[in-house]
Amino acid sequence: MKNIIYILFISSSIAIGQTGLFVDGASVYTESNTLFYVEGDVDIDNAGTIENNGDIEFDQDWINNAGNTGLINNAFGTVHMIGGNQEIRGNSITQFYNLDLKGGFVLKEAYQNAFITNNLNLNNAELQTHQNTIHLTNPDPLSLQWLNGFISGDSIGGYFARSTDRTSVYQYPVGNTNLFTSPYRGIDITPANGDSNVYGVRLAAEDASLDVTGTSFTGAPGPYDRTLKDNTILQLNPVFYHHVARMHGTSIANVKFYFFENDHLSQNRRFDGLGQWKSSFNEWDFVTTDFTANISGPAGYGTPENFISLTTGNFDDDAFSLAVTEGLLVFVPQIFSPNGDGANDVVFVRGRKIKELKFVVYNRWGEKVFETTDKTIGWDGSFKGQEAQSSVYVYYLEAEIEDFGEYKQQGNITLVR
Known about the structure:
Blueprint: E1 4-6, E2 13-15, E3 21-24, E4 27-30, E5 35-38, E6 42-45, E7 49-52, E8 55-58, E9 62-65, E10 78-81, E11 86-89, E12 94-101, E13 107-110, E14 114-121, E15 126-128, E16 133-136, E17 144-145, E18 150-152, E19 159-164, E20 170-172, E21 187-191, E22 197-204, E23 233-236, E24 241-248, E25 253-259, E26 273-278, E27 283-288, E28 291-292, E29 306-312, E30 319-325, E31 335-336, E32 354-362, E33 368-372, E34 382-383, E35 386-387, E36 391-401, E37 405-415
Parallel strand pairs: 1-4, 2-5, 3-6, 4-7, 5-8, 6-9, 8-10, 9-11, 10-12, 11-13, 12-14, 13-15, 14-16, 14-17, 15-18, 16-19, 28-37, 31-37
Antiparallel strand pairs: 19-22, 20-21, 21-25, 22-24, 23-30, 24-30, 25-29, 26-27, 26-30, 28-29, 32-33, 32-36, 34-35, 36-37
C-alpha cells in the first residue's frame, strides 16, 4: 500500500534541510496559503506524487523520475525556482500549474519537456530549452510574464510553445546574450481565428549553415545551407535565424520577426524580406517583403526598430531567416542635406529592377510634402516652393518589381540643413 504523507502546516513555511526533498513512492500534499521551502533538489521517484495547493520553493534541481506528471490533480499551486543555475530533468515530463523563475539574472535549463497549465513568470531569468519543448498550455495571452528574462534555445528541436484560442497577439521573448547587446529577437504570433492551435518558437543565435544540433519539429535536420537559395534572395542573415512551428491546429497566423537596426548587413544591403527553408527542395525560398522600419517596437523585446511581417498557413517547414532580396534592392536613404553643395541634395528611391513606383513623403503633421511616380525624380527638400524645415519625415513606398511583383515599404527620412 502506498505511503501517504500529509504535510500539515502550523506556520506559513517549513524548511526540509540541505539534502532536498525526496518523494520515493509516496504522496505529498501541501495546503493552500502555505510555503514549502526546500534546500536542495526536489526529487520525485517510483510513482511518487506531489499535490501542491500552496507554494514550493527550492534552490537546486527539479528531478522527475516518477513515471507520471509529478504534480497531480492540477492543484492551484506555484513552484518557485529560486536558486542560481537550476535544471528541470528526469525521465518523466512534469506538468506545473504555475512556474515562477527567480534568483536574479540566472540560468534555468530544461533537460526534459515540461508543461505549464496556468502561468509562467520568467522574471529576470534565462530559460534554456536545449532540445526540449516548454509548453505554456493556458491560451490566455497574459499567462506569460517577464521583466528582463528570456527563453533561449541552443539546439534544433527545442521550442517555447504556446497554446492559442483567440485572435490576440501571443508574445515569444526569445533571446540570447552571447551575440547581442539586447538579448531579444522576439516573435509575435497572431492567429487568424479562435481555433485551438499550438505555435512553437526558437531563436537560433548562430549561422544556419553551421547549425548541426538536431532535427526540427517538421523533420528537417540541420544545417540549413545559406548558399542554397532561390534566385530572388541575394543574401541570408549569417548571425541568427528562427524556427517557428505550428505544432497543433490548422489556422493561418501573422508572424512578426522583430530585429534591430544594427542587425542589417550594411546601409546598401538591408534585410528587407524573409526566407523559409524548404526541406523538400533543400533550399531557402523567398516568402515575404512586408518590411517595416523605424518603429518603436515592444519594450519587452528591448524596443527593436524593425520587423518583418508574414501572414501564412504554410508551416510545413519551420526555419525562417531575415533576407536581402535580389530583385528587391530598394533603398531609400535615411538622411539627406539639401544645402546646394551637390552632395546628397535630393533623396531618390534606388533599386535595379523597379518598374513602377509611388513615393510619398509626409511631415509630422500629416501633410503631404512630396509625391512622385517617376523613379528619376526625387525630393529636393522643398514644400510649396519653400525650403522644408529640418525634421524627420515619414515616407510610404509602393513599387512594382521586375520578376517579383508588388512591394511596399515605409520608414523615416531625416532632413538636415
